[in-house]
Amino acid sequence: MSDSREHVIKWLHAQVDMFALILAWVGAYYLRFYGPLPVPKGVPEWQVYFKLLPFIVIIWLLVFNMGGLYRRSMRPRSPVYEGLDILQLCMLAILAFIATTYFYEEYRYSRLTLFFFAILHPVFLVTSRSFLRKGLRAYRRKYPPRKVLLIGGGGALQKAFEITNSLGLTDAELVGLVPLGIEKPNEELSRRCRIFSIPDDWSQFFKQHPCETVILAPPREEHSFLDENLEKIAEHVIDIKALPDLSSFTRFASGIEVIDNIALINIHDSPLKGIGPVKKRALDLLVASLSLLVFGPLMLLLAGLTKLSSSGPILYKQERMGLDGKVFSIFKFRTMPVGSEQKTGAVWASKQDDRATFVGRLMRTTSLDELPQLFNVMRGEMSLVGPRPERPVFVETFRKNVPGYMLRHKVKAGMTGWAQVNGWRGNTSVEKRIECDLFYIQNWSVLFDIKILILTLFRGFLNPNAY
Predict the structure, then answer these.
(1) Where are the domains of the chain?
(2) Range 146-248: architecture per CATH
(3) How far, in Å, CA of 134 to CA of 256, rounded?
(4) Which tens digits make up the pLDDT trace of 261-291?
């Protein structure tokens, strides 16, 4: 999808959402004060309630944007899934709104009005977006679909097909496919597209099969096809898009940077870019600060028990590898007597590990020895959620034996992560952990972080692989 068209659709969704929110707040006001329920204190002036509308619009649109709702609106989705997304985000927004009005001392707003608004606004949002979808479909039906020809093979061809179907060319009609390379198109492509062989005469081909757009997605071994055919195709089709095959280089969605009119393709570009790190850092500071307040008394108790269990410092510092492969010192409550590792060297923790003290073993089993890492989060060395950091000595082994291992260092290391809440921690499969870490990086969002933090409360502290 072109940037201008994408911005227009996002803007339309934001405008529709804003209209629905205003309508829901006005409806809640009139339902409370002019509905069937008694109003013992009298009807307040409407200005008192309506001056909250700018705050409502700002809070909800910010939450929707941070939650990725407008990004997901670019792709065709089931109204049910969209409704569930909206409901979750509305719950977060309503909590933020309650917090805002709670600290507003000038006037105490009716809780019933807020209750009615909480019921009405998700319904209005879902309904208004449904009307917008119907309106966009009606608009597109007025124009003939843009005819598209796919030329390519391998992983790039599949991506080109997905782009045609869901990332902007939603009013496109596939003329067909000219496969390149030895790999045959998959079943879905073969079913949806008419398959053509490479024509000897492109002029005759386009006379028989006219189209407005050609998407070129040649596999790397077939790039000579462009040298031989691109000019011939360009004589008949103006709109030509090229999709390079980067599947052998990267596991992330690559981005393009333009510097002095020169296009650079980012092979391993971090998905946490732009406003992403700011949102993630804000969540880290907020939750880490609250966690230090909540767990502070427990941490003081654990510090005292650690000191009583054996002589030595309360905290144990250990080198770990984090963002961009930089080494930092991670904090943990000391669980072993001082000097224990000098005898064994760096070894992987296991059930047979008898070096821990009694208190240390309890803390390891419940993962409470990790609580001091909240200070690492506050210092910006770690995040609350991310791939768990490993010791440099283990990283040297894993990077040689596990494909894609170093990609996990494109984001900050975390206290907890998608791998940990799915049980892949301790002496378990490194490959499975990397799979979970890369999935997290590719699908990061603030809501995904919140989901992992909630799951950590139920699955993270007590785990059979924690020792």
Answers:
(1) 3-141, 146-248, 276-460
(2) 3-Layer(aba) Sandwich (3.40)
(3) 33
(4) 555 555 555 556 667 788 889 899 999 999 9
